[in-house]
Structures are given as C-alpha cells and as structure tokens.
Amino acid sequence: SHPPRVLSCIQPTGDLHLGNYLGALRNWVNGQHGCDAFHGVVDLHALTVTEQPGVVGDATLRTAAMLFAVGLDPEVATVFAQSHVPEHSQLAWVMQCQISFGELSRMTQFKDKSAKREGSFVSAGLFTYPTLQAADILLYDTNEVPVGDDQRQHIEITRDAAIRFNHRFGDTLVIPEAVTPAAGARVMSLQDPTSKMSKSDESGAGCIYLVDESAAIMKKFKRAVTDSETGPDSVRFDRENKPGVSNLLEINAAVTGRTPQQVAEGLDMYGKLKVETGEAVVAAIEPIRERYNELMGDPGELARLLRVGAEKARHVASATVERVHDAIGM
Ligand code: ADP
Ligand code: NA
Q: HAMAP family from the xrefs (predicted)?
C-alpha cells in the first residue's frame, strides 16, 4: 500500500520565525520520508487580503526559499506555489457549487477576519476561501491534513463538500481526514512570554526570524523577559509561574534535543540561560539562513525548484480535475 498523502500548506507571509520552525516546519522536514508530502505556498489565499502589486509574489518566493532552506527536499516532497497550479482555481469553482451559503456563513474564522477588517474592504474571496481550501485538499486526493483546532471547521466543510459531490455525481473524490499534527514546541514571545511568538509582534523584539543575523538573535535573547527571582533554584521549568524562563528552557530543549528539565539542571543564572539558549538557536538557524540566502541570490534555481514542484503537483491535480469534469459530464 502507498504511504498516506499528507497536505500542509502555508500562507506566503515571507517572514517565517522560530515558532513556525519549531512548531511546524521542522515536523514537515522530519515527516517527508514517511508520507507522500505535498506543501503548497498558498498565494491565492493571500489575495483575499492583498491590495498592492508585488507583495504576494515576493512573499511567495521568500516563503518557498525558506521551505527548501529548512530541509524540504524537492526530490522527496512536492513543494509548489498554489498559483502555478491553475487546477486550484478550476476545482475551487466546482467546490463553491458544493458548499452552501449557509455553511460558509457559519465559519467562525470568516466572522473573526471580517470583524477585524471592519470599515475596510471585505472581499467575497475572504468569505468563500474555505471553498478554495477544499479544492486545495481534494485536488491531491489527500488522505490526511494535519491541522490545529482553528482549522478543524474548514476540514469538516471540505469533507461534507466531497461527500456531497460523490453523492451527486458518483464516487470521485477522496475524503480527507483531519489529523493532529506531530507535536512541536509552542514558542512564546521573548518580550511577552504569555503570548505566542508571532510575525504580528510589531517591534520584532520578541520574535526570532529565521533570517535574523546571529548578532541580532543574541541581542533579542539577552533582552528576553524573565522574572525577578534569584538563587540557585531560579532556573526551573514552570510554565504557569515562570513563563519567560520556561519559554527559554523549552526553546533550548527543542533545538538541542533535550527536555526543558535537562536544560535547567546545569543552569542557575538567567544570564547564562539566555546566552546559552541564544547560542543554541544561532547554531540551529545559521545553516538555514545560509541556504536561504544562497537560494534568494539565485532566482533561476529557486524558479527551477518551484517548476519541478508545480509539475509534480499538476500531474496529480490535472487528473483530478479531469475526473471531476467527467463525473459531472462536462
Ligand atoms: P503567525 O502566528 O506568525 O501568524 P502562522 O499562523 O502563519 O504564524 O503559523 C504557521 C504555522 O506555524 C502553523 O502551523 C502554526 O501552528 C505554527 N506556529 C506559528 N507560531 C507558532 C509558535 N509561536 N509556536 C509554535 N508554532 C507556531
Ligand atoms: Na494560521
């Protein structure tokens, strides 16, 4: 039997950070040999909130370069830009016709996102984007979609749409399963350790970007927020009462392959914890940044890698669209 086909996509935000790496990307790299991995940089989704030229294309290239830099192997995984595979748009229309207005109206993410954009342009695409996401998944006969709780509703609507299509037109689409992603570290902001490290951190001081220079990384770690406890037992893992220290311990553990408790054992000063964690992160990120810079400096090679991915993706996608059109009878 074939290994399961697994699809994980990423929005082309450009600036991937340590949280993305330790929470998601590293698992994709480790998982690529055990499954038939498809990874799309979903630039069509970014269009739902894009109003300026150049931005999406640039972010797509940077995001794709980072996926290769962290270790996704273009010979092993299928890494592609969504807009390079026109079948996404083709199947999206078909899926729009399998999902009702009422179902889309119940999507909590649309309610959140449109509320945030109140007073500015709320595109119809923002409303229908679960139908494009359904197409993304169904196009590849995907077996498994690793998603967090915030995306479960979108996988449900995808399954319902596929079941409805199969009922109407005959057995055509593979029904995907939502699966819990391999456990990754949950990385908190270095400045506010009670909230997730995120690209929406405005100052950037709490966020380690994968493109950050080593000196900048060390500086951010040295300024990491901890607490005012002192004494030989002050370096210990306690998420609840010591979120800053625990975050540093967990980051250190994640990049050195230890447990937070093991990291804590050898340390009794916050200064040392910060420096050692910064150094461990620098050691982990430096080779990634070097590969990234190499690829960004060689646009021809990056374009070639994305062409290889798009060809592999289209091979599957075009067969699915043909099957769908045949089933409908068009
Ligand atoms: P951001 O929060 O910066 O907007 P995204 O929402 O685009 O990041 O997340 C992309 C992937 O990275 C998701 O799989 C998400 O779970 C993971 N991720 C994002 N931030 C973190 C974090 N701080 N710790 C662990 N994983 C994270
Ligand atoms: Na997200």
A: Trp_tRNA_synth_B
Interface predicted TM-score (ipTM):
0.92
CB 41 within 8 A of CB 12: yes
Pick among 3.40.50.620, 3.30.1830.10, 2.40.50.140, 3.40.190.10: CATH of 5-185+298-328: 3.40.50.620
- Name the segment(s) of the chain with CATH classification 1.10.240.10: 214-293
Beta partners for residue 209, in sequence order:
17
Q: Ligand 1: distance of its center to the CA of 144 in Å?
A: 19
Atom of ligand 1 nearest to the CA of 199: 3
Q: What are the C-alpha distances in Å from 159 to residues 28, 92, 170, 173?
A: 23, 14, 15, 10
Residue among 20, 147, 149, 239 whose CB has most ligand 1 atoms within 8 A, to mutate? 20
Residues 234-247: pLDDT tens digits?
999 999 999 999 99
CATH architecture group of domain 214-293? Orthogonal Bundle (1.10)
